[in-house]
Fold this protein.
Amino acid sequence: MNGGSEIASYLIVLLFLVSLLMNFTDIPQRIQLHRFSSFVRRKLYTLEEMEVDARRKAIAYMSSTGIKEPSKVLEGFMDNFFLIRPVDMEPTDIIKRFKHLIRVRESSVRDYVRRVLSGAERSVQYSVETVLEIVSVMRLLNKLIRHYLELGLKYNNWILVMQLAIQMPELVEIAKAYRNSLDAFTSGIPIGDSVGPLVAKMLVNWKEPIREISEGTDLYETEVEGRKVYVIKASGPGSNVGWPGEALEKLVEELGGAIDRIITVDAALKLESEESGEVAFGTGAAIGDIGPEKIAMERIASKYSIPLDAVVVKMSEVEALSPLTKKIYEGVVRSYEVVRKIIIEKVRDGGVAVVVGVGNTVGVK
Amino acid sequence: MMLLQLDALMTALLIALFLLLLTTLLPWLISVTSSKSKVVKEELVELVGCPKCGYESSRKYEKGDYVGKVVGTCPKDSNSLIVKAIYVEKHTYAQ
């Protein structure tokens, strides 16, 4: 035998041993666990840097609004003001209970901000609330990722760590969107989710509201080709979503149900195969609410048998939180045309329609 | 003859090793070659216009502006000129 054949024999034995180790032991899983956990750790460092950056921006913004000791205010907010979902095993009046809890939480947050921000106008107060919520969400995201990572390592659950590693790029994108949205909220620039209020404002030709119909929610009145149109949107230009369901309920009751059509406009999450800014229409309440506001719209529409239309502008979750792009603004213009078309074609001449511009009205008065 | 067979075995092992390395490095190679590179420049633009006569023009965003803010008078009919939209315009350049 010569030298070459000896090396070949060694290699065959080595391959055989390696194949044995890789197929009949849990060494590959250990290696994968190590690889995936170090990947998650690296991404987690990036996320923690983003959180620090977000805190820095939030503190700078709060200082600019005149809040004394903003870092204390931030710390006092983080990890507090959580909401325990109501019992759903017994669903009777769950919406009423949920709505009550949401209102109580919101009023606690509002009081907390009002205490540290005495004398500031309401739009600034709304923006401070949003900034605190964003930093709090980023902290929660990081804590959850660290929790699952440590749980996976503690019990050698490589599947858990692998799932986490696979989801990390998406989670990092969402965290980036939250961090970038801070710039929009602190500067008062419209975001992707502001498409509903923008369409509402276009419909009323940028006029002022006639009154505040619910807390933080304005009512406008206009006319489209001989049809009377009531328009509801959150009060701007601070970061605010208002109470569109409650406002619609009040308006319809005030008018005794004499409404021919209700049209809701909102941003909707696109599928990966869809283009940002695409406009679609359908039936139902276009609102990304967790329950109470959406059901209020559905209930009042069905109580008086009023047709309920939905017009949506498609975008990704990241775009919904980031400053409005030109592509999505073009979608806003198209959805405005769609809403006008629905009013002209489906509401009789001299009839009444209500348009609800759903979404965050940051940067849109 | 035996020598020839062993050499063939050695060659096969080397090919296998090469293929293994290639499949390991392929994702990295693809990512390095495909990210050749475009520079995206973002600019914040606002659309100002007159709700009465329909006059519109775009300009650079000014801090403190919001949609619905009155920012001057219309050059055509002297009515209020308001901010109609604020959005990000992306310009892509090849590096």
The mean pLDDT of chain B is 84. Residues 38-94 of chain B form one domain. The first helix of chain B runs from residue 2 to 34.
